[in-house]
Amino acid sequence: MVCTEAMRSIWKGAVTFGLVNVPVKVYSATEEHDVSLHQVHNADGGRIRYQRICELDGEIVPFSDIDRAYDNGEQTVILTKSDLDALPAERSREIEVVEFVPNTQIDPILLDKPYYLEPDSKSPKAYLLLRETLERSDRTAIVRFTLRQKTRLAALRVRGDVLVLQTLLWADEVREPSFASLTDAEPVSEKELELSAALVETYAADFDPAGFIDEYQTQLRTLIDAKLERGDAVDTEETFGPRGETGGAEVIDLMDALRASVERSRAARTDKAGDEAAAG
Asked: Is the pLDDT at 173 greater than 70, yes or no?
């Protein structure tokens, strides 16, 4: 169940398909967990700040006095906030369903920013109807709407008991790869595929995102705490241990690497199972 007490709605509108109207509130579904850092002058620790300066008069310009502009190389057109707000698409509060597609047809590379949708009416029946319809049909609704002066394409899907609106990249925003190194590559052998499949099996598990942590941010917080406690004289080797060697790994035969990897992974799993049994 998604808790919206600590979240703030960023947009209100309605999902529409046919003559069905589903009033919703939109919430950002994700948040940053990175430690916030700022830039300083390394000589004296002075804060480095960025300012908006007009190149004509050299004056610092407050954000409220800044407009947008388009330059075609010959002329410049200034677009005020009022101009942009007047666009029909910007005034629209509709999340329009354009089609329902099989869930498997959404290429993950297109997925962008996710948002939670909450019912915004006295009765959530229309919301529940859309949620149950998507679940039972194994389909995702492709929708379009306008948010923050941009037309968005998005996938509307179900997560738990909540509707999730996940913006999609436009097709021309995804670059097509073309790597010469793959064109003339030597095909893999059946034996290599068998060993690779065996290695996959030794790593097989059910994915639980809660079982993973951002190691860099954890280590960064440890370093900050150590510096707060002991100042700049912190010994990083004492805090984190000796720095290991990275890169420059020895190039070995692929088959040998696969066999060794399978054996090592199986041994590690056996040791882990033994430790869990002893602890239990």
From this structure: yes
Residue after which a domain boundary falls, among 130, 151, 173: 173
User: Do 272 and 143 share a structural domain?
Assistant: no
Would you say the C-alpha torsion 129, 114, 159, 202 has a positive or negative sign? positive
Same domain (yes/no): 104, 146: yes
pTM of this prediction exceeds 0.90 = no
pLDDT tens-digit profile of 63-117? 889 998 989 888 999 988 888 777 776 667 889 999 999 999 999 999 999 999 9
Smallest Cα–Cα separation from 103: which of 59, 50, 141, 60? 141
Mean pLDDT, residues 252-257 taken together = 77
Q: What is the number of structural domains in the chain? A: 2
Give the pLDDT score at 81: 84
Alpha-carbon distance 199 to 103, whole Å?
A: 29
- What's the rounded Cα separation, in Å, for the pair 27 and 9? 5
Nearest to 138 by CA among 118, 157, 125, 119: 157
Asked if pLDDT for residue 250 goes beyond 60, the answer is no
**Burial annotation 116-126 (CB, 10 A radius, 16+ → b, else e):** bbbbbeeeeeb
Residues 158 and 261 in one domain: no
User: In terms of domains, do 105 and 152 share one?
Assistant: yes
Domain of residue 132, CATH code? 2.40.290.10
- Six-digit token string for 226: 């150590």
Q: How far is CA 267 from the centre of its chain?
A: 35
> What domain range includes position 268?
185-241+250-279
pLDDT tens string 114-136: 999 999 988 899 999 999 999 99
Give the CA dihedral 186, 191, 193, 194, nearest 10 degrees: 180
If asked whether residues 197 and 259 sit together in one domain, one would say yes
* 27 and 131 share one domain: yes
